[in-house]
Specification:
Helix content is about 65%, strand content about 5%. The protein has about 70 residues and is mainly α. The longest helix has 26 residues. The radius of gyration is 13 Å and the shape is elongated. The structure holds FE2/S2 (inorganic) cluster.
């Protein structure tokens, strides 16, 4: 789903950027350009970013638990 129409950023793209290592809204914004034009998408994009970071941390923690 498109989150940012101005820059053509989807929720998948945000999740991909987080999966590739971004760990803050600032990093996601810098890498995607999301919310850098009209800014109407910022609230939803931040919420998606927060959830993606949370999911990534939970998955990393689970992987660590299996590795021990
Ligand atoms: Fe994202 Fe305009 S919709 S900057």
């Amino acid at each position: 789903m498109y989150v940012c129409l101005c820059k053509g950023v989807t929720d998948r793209k945000i999740c991909q950027v987080v999966s590739d290592g971004a760990r803050s809204w600032r990093e996601v914004r810098q890498q995607t350009g999301c919310a850098t034009q009209c800014g109407k998408c910022a609230c939803q994009a931040k919420a998606i970013t927060r959830q993606a970071i949370k999911d990534t941390i939970v998955a990393d923690t689970a992987n660590l638990a299996y590795a021990v």
